[in-house]
Amino acid sequence: MSTKPTTTIRIDPDVKKRASKVFDDIGISMSAGINTFLKAVVREGTIPFDIKAEHPKPHTNSGNAKLNHAFIVKKDEFYTQYEDVEKEMLHHREQLKGKSILCNCDDPFESAFFHYFIVNFNNLELASLTSTCYAESSLAGKEYPLESGAGAYTAVVTEAPDETIVRPDGSLDLESLFSMPGNYLAHLAGDGDFRTDECIDLLREADIVVTNPPFSLFREYMNLLKSHNKDFIVLGNMNATTTKEIFPLFRDNKVWYGESIRSGDRKFFVPDNYPLNAAGCGIDENGRSFIRVTGVRWFTNLETSRRHEPLELTSLYSPDEYPHYENYNAIEVGRTKNIPIDYDGVMGVPITFLDKYSPEQFEIIMLANGNARSNVSSKILSEVKYRRHAEDKGGVGMINGRRAYARILIRRNPL
Fold it and tell me: How far is the C-alpha of 14 from the C-alpha of 107, rounded, in Å?
């Protein structure tokens, strides 16, 4: 019997409907969403977002307004650690060689991405490195202010000195770097939003994009890369894989996880005014504020050897251990390592399956979550013999009258 207390709250019907749609998108129940909010309140010691009485001034560029809102409310200004960038790029050195790299940044000179590619510019034989600055970043222009004033800018590097330009304190000798012919800083007309025309022009010129876009805008950023057919290595949260924009890319083998991060959390530097109430947050020995974020993954469409390694399996199928869903012709597999080696039918596996997914070993069919009925074709739903259930909230797998978690439906590829 459950020992959790039950709380009754009044919710505006329209708000409830719209919130349910969002929760369905990310594959969780409303109860789980509310519990997540309450835990955030406890962790932060306050409501975990800003509440203001005044209405924001209208912006002529709705994209910029959305991006500004992401930085202010969602606190998306995270700075990736150099070590995390280095560990992943080591797996792609041959693919990066001779390429033109684009890094959309809050500020290039605060960015581990810019730092890494400058330090390794000659070893990678890069054709060029272009990095943009977002004007609304709290750190924009602080490390190396432009003489002509604040604002968004682009840093372009086409050559780097043979000798090191890393100073004893770990910073870059930017004066030496930008005194070289072909290297320059230039103001952008806009604010550096990755969706502005001038930033899209830079995107078109690049061979490979490497960055960590704001997590709240990750889907939009990925759509932009997809629409311009770009190669990329970008950092994001694995929760994005359950969305209607990202999951089809995994299903169709157009994106997969990178090599170096498959579990645990990662440390990110944050602005000094970022709340550090959660466990794992703090200030390092150099006085920089940091947080730790779980579920972080590299997303890429550059080939990796790891994704072709088959998953070693030892479990055998048993009807008692692997119940059938009531609304799909598929069995429930609660843990990826327990995929039965002798079952050839459709199986529902956790989202974390993507950490071990080999396209030669398995086929991804669909995502069984709250949006399955609207996001999955009738042909596929018929193929897995989906039957509408009164309690499945749009397509979540049902077992003994209870909804399972969001599951990826897979089947083994023939040998």
Answer: 40
